[in-house]
Amino acid sequence: MTESAGTADLEMVCQKYEPVIGLETHVELSTNSKMFCGCPAHFGGEANSHVCPVCLGLPGSLPVANRAAIEATIRIGLAMNCQIASRARFARKNYFYPDMPKDFQISQYDEPLCTGGYLDIWVGEGANRDRFRVGITRVHLEEDTGKLTHGGETGRIHGASYSLVDYNRAGVPLVEIVTDPIVGAGERAPEVARGYVAEVRELMRALDVSDVRMEEGSLRCDVNVSLAPRGSSVWGQRTETKNVNSLRSVARAVRAEMTRQAAVLDSGGVIVQETRHFHEDTGETTGGRIKEEAEDYRYFPEPDLAVVAPDPVWVNELKANSPELPSAKLERLGAEWGFEYEQMREIANAEAVELVRETIELGVAPTDSRKWWMGELARRANESETDLLALGVSAKDVATVATAINNGELSDALGRQVFEGVIAGEGSADQVIKSRGLALVSDSGALQRVVDEAIAANADVAEKVKQGKVSAVGVIVGAVMKATQGKADAAAVRKLVMNSLGVSD
Protein backbone atom coordinates (compact mmCIF):
# COMPACT_ATOMS: atom_id res chain seq x y z
CA MET A 1 0.00 0.00 0.00
CA THR A 2 1.44 3.37 -0.95
CA GLU A 3 1.19 6.36 1.36
CA SER A 4 -0.96 8.26 -1.14
CA ALA A 5 -3.35 5.35 -1.44
CA GLY A 6 -3.46 5.04 2.33
CA THR A 7 -4.36 8.71 2.66
CA ALA A 8 -7.21 8.38 0.15
CA ASP A 9 -8.51 5.32 2.03
CA LEU A 10 -8.28 7.21 5.29
CA GLU A 11 -10.88 9.75 4.20
CA MET A 12 -13.38 6.98 3.51
CA VAL A 13 -12.49 5.15 6.72
CA CYS A 14 -13.18 8.23 8.84
CA GLN A 15 -16.53 8.86 7.20
CA LYS A 16 -17.72 5.61 8.78
CA TYR A 17 -15.46 4.99 11.77
CA GLU A 18 -13.96 6.96 14.63
CA PRO A 19 -10.31 6.05 15.33
CA VAL A 20 -8.88 5.86 18.84
CA ILE A 21 -5.12 5.63 19.18
CA GLY A 22 -2.78 5.14 22.10
CA LEU A 23 0.99 5.32 22.12
CA GLU A 24 3.50 3.62 24.39
CA THR A 25 6.96 5.05 23.92
CA HIS A 26 9.98 3.29 25.43
CA VAL A 27 13.01 5.45 26.14
CA GLU A 28 16.37 3.94 27.06
CA LEU A 29 18.08 6.25 29.54
CA SER A 30 21.67 7.37 29.01
CA THR A 31 22.95 6.29 32.40
CA ASN A 32 26.46 4.94 32.82
CA SER A 33 25.27 1.70 34.40
CA LYS A 34 22.24 -0.55 34.12
CA MET A 35 19.08 -0.24 36.19
CA PHE A 36 19.83 -2.76 38.91
CA CYS A 37 23.54 -3.55 38.57
CA GLY A 38 26.87 -1.93 37.73
CA CYS A 39 27.23 -3.25 34.17
CA PRO A 40 27.79 -0.66 31.41
CA ALA A 41 24.56 0.57 29.85
CA HIS A 42 26.17 1.71 26.59
CA PHE A 43 24.91 0.65 23.16
CA GLY A 44 26.91 -1.95 21.26
CA GLY A 45 29.89 -3.99 22.35
CA GLU A 46 30.63 -7.66 21.77
CA ALA A 47 27.54 -9.79 22.39
CA ASN A 48 27.03 -10.73 26.05
CA SER A 49 30.06 -8.74 27.23
CA HIS A 50 28.08 -6.22 29.37
CA VAL A 51 26.56 -8.77 31.74
CA CYS A 52 26.84 -9.96 35.34
CA PRO A 53 24.93 -12.32 37.68
CA VAL A 54 22.31 -9.63 38.42
CA CYS A 55 21.27 -8.78 34.84
CA LEU A 56 21.54 -12.46 33.90
CA GLY A 57 19.19 -13.36 36.75
CA LEU A 58 21.51 -15.90 38.34
CA PRO A 59 20.43 -17.44 41.67
CA GLY A 60 21.38 -15.43 44.76
CA SER A 61 21.96 -12.14 42.92
CA LEU A 62 20.17 -9.06 44.27
CA PRO A 63 19.19 -5.84 42.45
CA VAL A 64 20.02 -2.30 43.61
CA ALA A 65 18.05 0.57 42.04
CA ASN A 66 19.92 3.15 39.96
CA ARG A 67 19.39 6.62 41.52
CA ALA A 68 20.28 8.47 38.30
CA ALA A 69 17.56 6.55 36.43
CA ILE A 70 14.98 7.43 39.08
CA GLU A 71 15.97 11.10 38.86
CA ALA A 72 15.72 11.06 35.05
CA THR A 73 12.25 9.50 35.21
CA ILE A 74 11.04 12.17 37.63
CA ARG A 75 12.43 14.90 35.37
CA ILE A 76 10.57 13.38 32.41
CA GLY A 77 7.36 13.25 34.44
CA LEU A 78 7.72 16.89 35.51
CA ALA A 79 8.34 18.00 31.92
CA MET A 80 5.14 16.18 30.94
CA ASN A 81 3.12 17.91 33.68
CA CYS A 82 2.69 14.72 35.71
CA GLN A 83 2.07 14.24 39.39
CA ILE A 84 5.10 12.71 41.09
CA ALA A 85 4.19 9.90 43.46
CA SER A 86 5.09 10.24 47.14
CA ARG A 87 5.85 6.51 47.01
CA ALA A 88 6.36 4.17 44.10
CA ARG A 89 7.02 0.47 44.03
CA PHE A 90 8.73 -1.88 41.62
CA ALA A 91 6.90 -5.05 40.62
CA ARG A 92 7.70 -8.32 38.91
CA LYS A 93 6.09 -8.73 35.50
CA ASN A 94 6.16 -12.46 34.83
CA TYR A 95 6.45 -13.85 31.34
CA PHE A 96 8.57 -16.48 29.65
CA TYR A 97 10.61 -15.31 26.69
CA PRO A 98 14.30 -15.88 25.99
CA ASP A 99 15.20 -12.17 25.98
CA MET A 100 14.37 -11.99 29.73
CA PRO A 101 16.86 -14.27 31.51
CA LYS A 102 15.01 -14.10 34.86
CA ASP A 103 11.67 -15.05 33.22
CA PHE A 104 10.31 -11.85 34.76
CA GLN A 105 10.92 -8.15 34.20
CA ILE A 106 11.30 -5.66 37.04
CA SER A 107 8.86 -2.88 36.16
CA GLN A 108 6.24 -0.70 37.85
CA TYR A 109 2.56 -1.56 37.83
CA ASP A 110 -0.03 -0.02 40.14
CA GLU A 111 2.39 2.38 41.85
CA PRO A 112 4.36 4.17 39.10
CA LEU A 113 6.56 7.21 39.65
CA CYS A 114 4.58 9.66 37.47
CA THR A 115 0.88 9.88 36.55
CA GLY A 116 -1.76 12.16 35.09
CA GLY A 117 0.17 14.51 32.82
CA TYR A 118 -0.16 15.92 29.31
CA LEU A 119 1.91 17.09 26.36
CA ASP A 120 0.78 19.71 23.86
CA ILE A 121 1.76 19.19 20.24
CA TRP A 122 1.15 21.10 17.02
CA VAL A 123 0.27 19.37 13.77
CA GLY A 124 -0.39 20.68 10.30
CA GLU A 125 0.80 23.82 8.57
CA GLY A 126 -0.56 27.28 7.96
CA ALA A 127 -4.32 27.53 8.30
CA ASN A 128 -4.50 23.79 9.03
CA ARG A 129 -2.17 24.02 12.03
CA ASP A 130 -3.87 22.83 15.21
CA ARG A 131 -2.88 22.08 18.77
CA PHE A 132 -3.60 18.68 20.27
CA ARG A 133 -3.29 17.98 23.96
CA VAL A 134 -2.22 14.38 24.49
CA GLY A 135 -2.95 13.08 27.96
CA ILE A 136 -0.26 11.06 29.73
CA THR A 137 -1.58 8.17 31.80
CA ARG A 138 1.73 7.22 33.38
CA VAL A 139 5.50 7.42 33.15
CA HIS A 140 7.14 4.44 34.77
CA LEU A 141 10.59 2.96 35.09
CA GLU A 142 11.65 -0.59 34.27
CA GLU A 143 14.53 -2.62 32.85
CA ASP A 144 14.96 -3.33 29.17
CA THR A 145 15.12 -6.83 27.71
CA GLY A 146 17.86 -8.51 25.71
CA LYS A 147 17.96 -8.52 21.93
CA LEU A 148 17.04 -11.52 19.80
CA THR A 149 18.48 -12.08 16.35
CA HIS A 150 16.59 -14.57 14.19
CA GLY A 151 18.40 -16.42 11.44
CA GLY A 152 16.53 -16.64 8.16
CA GLU A 153 15.46 -14.62 5.14
CA THR A 154 12.96 -12.37 6.93
CA GLY A 155 14.89 -11.74 10.14
CA ARG A 156 11.72 -12.61 12.11
CA ILE A 157 11.04 -15.55 14.38
CA HIS A 158 8.54 -17.08 11.95
CA GLY A 159 10.53 -19.20 9.56
CA ALA A 160 13.82 -18.69 11.38
CA SER A 161 16.26 -21.60 11.42
CA TYR A 162 17.91 -20.38 14.64
CA SER A 163 17.81 -17.51 17.15
CA LEU A 164 20.61 -15.81 19.05
CA VAL A 165 20.23 -13.66 22.17
CA ASP A 166 22.46 -10.81 23.29
CA TYR A 167 21.91 -9.79 26.92
CA ASN A 168 23.97 -6.59 26.74
CA ARG A 169 20.73 -4.58 26.62
CA ALA A 170 19.03 -6.62 29.36
CA GLY A 171 18.75 -4.46 32.47
CA VAL A 172 19.34 -1.09 30.77
CA PRO A 173 17.07 1.55 32.40
CA LEU A 174 13.94 1.96 30.31
CA VAL A 175 11.20 4.56 30.79
CA GLU A 176 7.77 3.75 29.39
CA ILE A 177 5.45 6.67 28.64
CA VAL A 178 1.82 5.66 28.14
CA THR A 179 -0.72 8.08 26.68
CA ASP A 180 -4.41 8.31 27.42
CA PRO A 181 -6.60 7.18 24.52
CA ILE A 182 -6.38 9.90 21.85
CA VAL A 183 -9.82 10.60 20.38
CA GLY A 184 -11.10 13.19 17.94
CA ALA A 185 -8.10 13.17 15.60
CA GLY A 186 -10.04 11.56 12.74
CA GLU A 187 -8.07 11.22 9.55
CA ARG A 188 -5.26 13.24 11.15
CA ALA A 189 -4.58 10.39 13.60
CA PRO A 190 -1.36 9.32 11.79
CA GLU A 191 -0.16 12.92 11.80
CA VAL A 192 -0.97 13.31 15.51
CA ALA A 193 0.86 10.07 16.35
CA ARG A 194 3.97 11.16 14.49
CA GLY A 195 3.85 14.65 15.97
CA TYR A 196 3.57 13.29 19.50
CA VAL A 197 6.51 10.89 19.16
CA ALA A 198 8.58 13.67 17.55
CA GLU A 199 7.81 15.94 20.51
CA VAL A 200 8.74 13.18 22.97
CA ARG A 201 12.03 12.69 21.14
CA GLU A 202 12.85 16.41 21.27
CA LEU A 203 11.84 16.57 24.93
CA MET A 204 14.20 13.71 25.85
CA ARG A 205 17.02 15.52 24.07
CA ALA A 206 16.24 18.77 25.86
CA LEU A 207 16.31 16.93 29.19
CA ASP A 208 19.55 15.17 28.15
CA VAL A 209 18.31 11.84 29.51
CA SER A 210 18.60 9.76 26.32
CA ASP A 211 20.14 9.91 22.86
CA VAL A 212 16.74 8.68 21.52
CA ARG A 213 18.30 7.08 18.46
CA MET A 214 15.33 5.21 17.00
CA GLU A 215 17.56 3.28 14.61
CA GLU A 216 19.49 1.88 17.62
CA GLY A 217 16.34 1.12 19.62
CA SER A 218 16.85 3.71 22.37
CA LEU A 219 13.44 5.13 21.42
CA ARG A 220 10.75 2.66 20.38
CA CYS A 221 7.02 3.03 20.06
CA ASP A 222 4.12 0.61 20.41
CA VAL A 223 1.12 1.85 18.43
CA ASN A 224 -2.39 0.97 19.62
CA VAL A 225 -5.27 1.50 17.19
CA SER A 226 -9.00 0.76 17.32
CA LEU A 227 -12.01 1.79 15.25
CA ALA A 228 -15.57 2.30 16.40
CA PRO A 229 -18.63 3.02 14.23
CA ARG A 230 -19.32 6.76 14.20
CA GLY A 231 -21.80 7.66 16.92
CA SER A 232 -21.06 4.55 18.96
CA SER A 233 -20.40 4.96 22.68
CA VAL A 234 -18.29 1.80 22.77
CA TRP A 235 -14.73 1.80 21.48
CA GLY A 236 -13.60 -0.92 19.13
CA GLN A 237 -11.15 -3.73 19.86
CA ARG A 238 -7.56 -2.54 19.69
CA THR A 239 -4.39 -3.95 18.23
CA GLU A 240 -0.84 -3.11 19.31
CA THR A 241 1.83 -2.74 16.65
CA LYS A 242 5.13 -3.35 18.45
CA ASN A 243 8.51 -1.64 18.33
CA VAL A 244 7.98 0.86 15.53
CA ASN A 245 11.34 2.55 15.11
CA SER A 246 10.99 5.73 13.04
CA LEU A 247 8.72 8.77 12.99
CA ARG A 248 7.61 8.03 9.45
CA SER A 249 6.79 4.45 10.39
CA VAL A 250 4.68 5.56 13.38
CA ALA A 251 2.39 7.46 11.00
CA ARG A 252 2.39 4.63 8.47
CA ALA A 253 1.57 2.03 11.15
CA VAL A 254 -1.46 4.04 12.33
CA ARG A 255 -2.62 4.50 8.75
CA ALA A 256 -2.13 0.83 7.90
CA GLU A 257 -4.09 -0.38 10.93
CA MET A 258 -6.94 2.08 10.34
CA THR A 259 -7.40 0.95 6.75
CA ARG A 260 -6.90 -2.75 7.57
CA GLN A 261 -9.35 -2.75 10.48
CA ALA A 262 -11.95 -0.88 8.41
CA ALA A 263 -11.67 -3.51 5.67
CA VAL A 264 -12.12 -6.32 8.23
CA LEU A 265 -15.14 -4.65 9.83
CA ASP A 266 -16.71 -3.81 6.45
CA SER A 267 -16.50 -7.48 5.46
CA GLY A 268 -18.29 -8.57 8.63
CA GLY A 269 -15.15 -9.75 10.43
CA VAL A 270 -14.00 -9.02 13.95
CA ILE A 271 -10.80 -7.39 15.18
CA VAL A 272 -8.64 -9.69 17.29
CA GLN A 273 -6.80 -8.13 20.23
CA GLU A 274 -3.23 -8.98 19.33
CA THR A 275 0.25 -7.63 18.83
CA ARG A 276 1.25 -6.92 15.25
CA HIS A 277 4.48 -6.37 13.35
CA PHE A 278 5.06 -3.40 11.04
CA HIS A 279 6.88 -4.06 7.76
CA GLU A 280 8.99 -1.14 6.53
CA ASP A 281 9.15 -2.42 2.96
CA THR A 282 5.39 -2.73 2.40
CA GLY A 283 3.96 -0.34 4.99
CA GLU A 284 1.64 -3.11 6.20
CA THR A 285 1.20 -4.93 9.51
CA THR A 286 0.94 -8.65 10.15
CA GLY A 287 -0.36 -10.55 13.18
CA GLY A 288 1.89 -11.58 16.03
CA ARG A 289 0.58 -13.09 19.25
CA ILE A 290 -2.65 -12.74 21.18
CA LYS A 291 -2.27 -9.71 23.45
CA GLU A 292 -2.00 -10.47 27.14
CA GLU A 293 -4.04 -8.69 29.78
CA ALA A 294 -2.46 -7.36 32.99
CA GLU A 295 -3.55 -10.39 34.98
CA ASP A 296 -1.67 -12.65 32.57
CA TYR A 297 1.59 -11.14 33.79
CA ARG A 298 0.81 -12.03 37.44
CA TYR A 299 2.25 -8.77 38.78
CA PHE A 300 3.34 -8.73 42.41
CA PRO A 301 5.61 -6.34 44.39
CA GLU A 302 9.33 -6.93 43.87
CA PRO A 303 10.46 -8.35 47.24
CA ASP A 304 14.14 -7.45 46.76
CA LEU A 305 13.65 -3.69 46.28
CA ALA A 306 12.50 -1.07 48.76
CA VAL A 307 9.69 1.41 48.10
CA VAL A 308 10.87 4.55 46.25
CA ALA A 309 9.81 7.67 48.18
CA PRO A 310 11.09 10.83 46.42
CA ASP A 311 11.79 13.71 48.79
CA PRO A 312 9.40 16.60 47.89
CA VAL A 313 12.23 19.10 48.35
CA TRP A 314 14.34 17.18 45.83
CA VAL A 315 11.42 16.97 43.38
CA ASN A 316 10.86 20.75 43.64
CA GLU A 317 14.56 21.35 42.95
CA LEU A 318 14.35 19.18 39.83
CA LYS A 319 11.24 21.07 38.72
CA ALA A 320 12.90 24.45 39.23
CA ASN A 321 15.82 23.36 37.04
CA SER A 322 13.69 21.91 34.22
CA PRO A 323 14.79 23.11 30.75
CA GLU A 324 12.64 24.97 28.26
CA LEU A 325 10.23 22.66 26.44
CA PRO A 326 11.09 22.02 22.77
CA SER A 327 7.86 23.51 21.37
CA ALA A 328 8.32 26.68 23.43
CA LYS A 329 11.95 26.87 22.34
CA LEU A 330 10.97 26.62 18.67
CA GLU A 331 8.39 29.39 19.09
CA ARG A 332 10.94 31.64 20.83
CA LEU A 333 13.78 31.04 18.38
CA GLY A 334 11.44 31.40 15.42
CA ALA A 335 10.40 34.82 16.68
CA GLU A 336 14.04 35.82 17.25
CA TRP A 337 15.19 34.64 13.83
CA GLY A 338 12.14 35.72 11.84
CA PHE A 339 11.12 32.19 10.76
CA GLU A 340 7.61 30.77 10.46
CA TYR A 341 6.77 27.83 12.73
CA GLU A 342 6.76 25.45 9.73
CA GLN A 343 10.33 26.52 8.93
CA MET A 344 11.37 25.92 12.54
CA ARG A 345 9.69 22.51 12.54
CA GLU A 346 11.62 21.63 9.37
CA ILE A 347 14.86 22.61 11.11
CA ALA A 348 13.89 20.58 14.19
CA ASN A 349 12.99 17.52 12.11
CA ALA A 350 16.45 17.70 10.54
CA GLU A 351 17.97 17.87 14.05
CA ALA A 352 19.58 21.17 13.06
CA VAL A 353 18.27 23.64 15.67
CA GLU A 354 21.55 23.77 17.60
CA LEU A 355 23.62 23.85 14.40
CA VAL A 356 21.62 26.81 13.08
CA ARG A 357 21.79 28.55 16.47
CA GLU A 358 25.58 28.12 16.77
CA THR A 359 26.05 29.45 13.24
CA ILE A 360 23.91 32.51 13.95
CA GLU A 361 25.88 33.17 17.15
CA LEU A 362 29.04 33.31 14.99
CA GLY A 363 27.57 36.33 13.19
CA VAL A 364 25.79 34.69 10.23
CA ALA A 365 22.36 36.03 9.27
CA PRO A 366 19.55 33.59 10.22
CA THR A 367 18.43 33.30 6.58
CA ASP A 368 21.96 32.41 5.44
CA SER A 369 22.39 29.90 8.26
CA ARG A 370 19.11 28.20 7.40
CA LYS A 371 19.91 28.35 3.67
CA TRP A 372 23.12 26.33 4.02
CA TRP A 373 22.07 23.86 6.69
CA MET A 374 18.63 23.11 5.24
CA GLY A 375 19.71 23.41 1.60
CA GLU A 376 23.08 22.19 0.42
CA LEU A 377 24.07 20.34 3.59
CA ALA A 378 20.68 18.68 4.18
CA ARG A 379 20.77 17.52 0.55
CA ARG A 380 24.18 15.94 1.03
CA ALA A 381 23.05 14.29 4.27
CA ASN A 382 20.01 12.81 2.51
CA GLU A 383 22.12 11.55 -0.38
CA SER A 384 24.50 9.78 1.98
CA GLU A 385 21.61 8.54 4.17
CA THR A 386 23.10 10.09 7.29
CA ASP A 387 22.36 13.05 9.53
CA LEU A 388 23.78 16.55 9.49
CA LEU A 389 26.08 16.00 12.47
CA ALA A 390 27.67 12.99 10.77
CA LEU A 391 28.74 15.09 7.76
CA GLY A 392 31.63 16.56 9.74
CA VAL A 393 30.69 20.16 8.90
CA SER A 394 30.78 22.54 11.86
CA ALA A 395 28.97 25.80 12.55
CA LYS A 396 32.33 27.53 12.13
CA ASP A 397 32.71 26.04 8.64
CA VAL A 398 29.32 27.40 7.61
CA ALA A 399 30.15 30.78 9.13
CA THR A 400 33.43 30.88 7.21
CA VAL A 401 31.69 30.20 3.89
CA ALA A 402 28.78 32.59 4.53
CA THR A 403 31.11 35.41 5.58
CA ALA A 404 33.36 34.90 2.57
CA ILE A 405 30.37 35.05 0.23
CA ASN A 406 29.06 38.22 1.86
CA ASN A 407 32.53 39.77 1.53
CA GLY A 408 32.66 38.92 -2.16
CA GLU A 409 35.49 36.43 -1.68
CA LEU A 410 33.45 33.35 -2.67
CA SER A 411 30.41 32.61 -4.79
CA ASP A 412 27.64 30.19 -3.85
CA ALA A 413 29.12 27.70 -6.31
CA LEU A 414 32.53 27.95 -4.69
CA GLY A 415 30.89 27.67 -1.28
CA ARG A 416 29.43 24.32 -2.34
CA GLN A 417 32.92 23.21 -3.36
CA VAL A 418 34.22 24.18 0.07
CA PHE A 419 31.63 21.97 1.78
CA GLU A 420 32.46 19.17 -0.64
CA GLY A 421 36.05 19.34 0.54
CA VAL A 422 35.16 19.49 4.24
CA ILE A 423 32.88 16.47 3.91
CA ALA A 424 35.62 14.62 2.02
CA GLY A 425 37.91 15.08 5.02
CA GLU A 426 40.23 17.71 3.52
CA GLY A 427 40.11 19.84 6.65
CA SER A 428 38.18 22.87 7.87
CA ALA A 429 36.54 25.37 5.52
CA ASP A 430 39.55 27.70 5.81
CA GLN A 431 41.94 24.86 4.96
CA VAL A 432 39.87 23.72 1.96
CA ILE A 433 39.65 27.26 0.57
CA LYS A 434 43.44 27.56 0.81
CA SER A 435 44.35 24.09 -0.48
CA ARG A 436 41.92 24.18 -3.40
CA GLY A 437 42.64 27.81 -4.23
CA LEU A 438 38.95 28.66 -3.97
CA ALA A 439 38.69 32.42 -4.20
CA LEU A 440 36.91 34.72 -6.60
CA VAL A 441 39.02 36.41 -9.27
CA SER A 442 39.28 39.92 -7.85
CA ASP A 443 41.74 41.39 -10.40
CA SER A 444 39.42 43.40 -12.67
CA GLY A 445 42.10 43.66 -15.38
CA ALA A 446 42.63 39.89 -15.45
CA LEU A 447 38.88 39.26 -15.53
CA GLN A 448 38.41 41.75 -18.36
CA ARG A 449 41.03 39.91 -20.41
CA VAL A 450 39.15 36.61 -19.93
CA VAL A 451 35.89 38.35 -20.96
CA ASP A 452 37.50 39.75 -24.10
CA GLU A 453 38.82 36.30 -25.03
CA ALA A 454 35.38 34.73 -24.50
CA ILE A 455 33.71 37.37 -26.68
CA ALA A 456 36.28 36.83 -29.43
CA ALA A 457 35.80 33.05 -29.26
CA ASN A 458 32.01 33.46 -29.50
CA ALA A 459 31.75 36.28 -32.03
CA ASP A 460 28.49 34.99 -33.51
CA VAL A 461 26.86 34.91 -30.09
CA ALA A 462 28.19 38.41 -29.31
CA GLU A 463 26.59 39.69 -32.51
CA LYS A 464 23.22 38.23 -31.48
CA VAL A 465 23.46 39.96 -28.13
CA LYS A 466 24.23 43.28 -29.84
CA GLN A 467 21.16 42.77 -32.03
CA GLY A 468 18.93 42.47 -28.98
CA LYS A 469 18.93 38.78 -28.11
CA VAL A 470 20.15 39.43 -24.58
CA SER A 471 19.41 35.91 -23.35
CA ALA A 472 22.27 34.62 -25.50
CA VAL A 473 24.77 36.35 -23.22
CA GLY A 474 24.65 33.27 -20.99
CA VAL A 475 26.87 31.43 -23.46
CA ILE A 476 29.66 33.98 -23.05
CA VAL A 477 29.19 34.21 -19.29
CA GLY A 478 29.44 30.40 -19.13
CA ALA A 479 32.66 30.46 -21.15
CA VAL A 480 34.18 32.96 -18.72
CA MET A 481 33.10 30.88 -15.70
CA LYS A 482 34.63 27.80 -17.27
CA ALA A 483 37.88 29.61 -18.02
CA THR A 484 38.11 30.83 -14.42
CA GLN A 485 37.08 27.42 -13.03
CA GLY A 486 34.05 29.02 -11.44
CA LYS A 487 36.21 31.50 -9.53
CA ALA A 488 34.52 34.58 -10.94
CA ASP A 489 31.33 36.20 -9.74
CA ALA A 490 28.71 35.41 -12.38
CA ALA A 491 26.84 38.68 -11.87
CA ALA A 492 30.04 40.69 -12.23
CA VAL A 493 30.99 38.72 -15.34
CA ARG A 494 27.62 39.39 -16.96
CA LYS A 495 27.96 43.09 -16.28
CA LEU A 496 31.46 43.17 -17.82
CA VAL A 497 30.27 41.28 -20.93
CA MET A 498 27.30 43.59 -21.45
CA ASN A 499 29.49 46.70 -21.00
CA SER A 500 32.08 45.30 -23.41
CA LEU A 501 29.37 44.73 -26.04
CA GLY A 502 27.87 48.17 -25.42
CA VAL A 503 24.49 46.68 -24.56
CA SER A 504 22.33 47.78 -21.65
CA ASP A 505 20.99 44.99 -19.48
Describe the structure concisely.
By secondary structure, the protein is α+β, with helices and mostly antiparallel strands.
What is the gyration radius calculated from CA atoms? 29 Å
Which class best fits the helix and strand makeup?
A: alpha+beta
Tally of helical segments: 16
Mean pLDDT: 88
Task: Note the run of SSEs as H and E.
Answer: HEHEEEEEEEEHEEHEEEHHHHHHHHHHHH
Biggest beta sheet attributes: 9 strands, mixed
In which range does the helix fraction lie?
25-40%
Plain-language structure description:
With 505 residues, the protein is an alpha+beta fold. The protein has three domains: 316 residues, no CATH class; 113 residues, no CATH class; 58 residues, Orthogonal Bundle (Arc Repressor Mutant, subunit A), CATH 1.10.10.410. The protein has 16 helices and 14 strands. Strands 2-5-6-9-1-10-11-12-13 form a nine-stranded mixed beta sheet. A three-stranded antiparallel beta sheet has the order 4-3-14, with no helix packed on it. Helix 10 packs antiparallel against helix 11.
List the topology elements:
Elements (H helix, E strand, L loop, with lengths): L2 H14 E12 L38 H13 L3 E2 L5 E5 L9 E5 L5 E10 L6 E14 L3 E5 L10 E5 L6 E7 L9 H19 L11 E11 L9 E6 L2 H20 L7 E6 L4 E7 L9 E2 L10 H9 L5 H12 L3 H9 L3 H9 L4 H18 L11 H12 L5 H12 L5 H8 L7 H14 L1 H8 L6 H11 L6 H12 L4
Parallel strand pairs: 11-12
Antiparallel strand pairs: 1-9, 1-10, 2-5, 3-4, 3-14, 5-6, 6-9, 7-8, 10-11, 12-13
